[in-house]
Amino acid sequence: GVVPMLFANLPTPAIAGNMAAKLFAAQTWVAVVCGLLLLLTLRTNQPLAQENKAQSALLFIVGGVLLALLSQYVAAPHIVARDNLRLWHSVGTALYVLQWLCAGVTFKKLLD
């Protein structure tokens, strides 16, 4: 992954950690924008079958956006502050994995 490469190639762990935080912040905003665009797209008048797909994906779209925001505004500040790093890194990782699971379920529901 990208983050291990940062720690392997940048001069100090502090610099690598700051760069990783910036990358995760950018990823959060990409996730939020994509989620909002999906929600706007699914609001349009569509045939009933498409509307049912949209409804079944709605919870996972909103969940993915909320998980991204929780990661950025709850876990990340603790990680940057090195506050109980092991715990908050685990929480951040779990939020990230759950966010990607929401994305996967969303696309599966929309493509079925």
Account of the 3D structure:
This protein is an all-alpha fold and 112 residues long. It has one domain. Helices cover 88% and strands 0% of the residues. It contains four helices and no strands. It has helices spanning 2-9, 13-42, 48-80, 85-111. Helix 2 (13-42) runs antiparallel to helix 3. The protein starts with a helix and ends with a helix.
Task: Give the tags.
mainly alpha; single chain; 4 helices; 112 residues
Please provide a brief summary of the model.
With 112 residues, the protein is mainly α. It is 88% helix and 0% strand. It has one domain (24-111).
Basic shape: elongated
**How far do the termini sit from each other?**
30 Å
Strand content: under 5%
The helix-and-strand class reads mainly alpha
Please trace the helix and strand order, writing H or E for each element.
Answer: HHHH
Using only C-alpha atoms, the radius of gyration works out to: 17 Å
Tally of discrete structural domains: 1
Average of pLDDT: 89
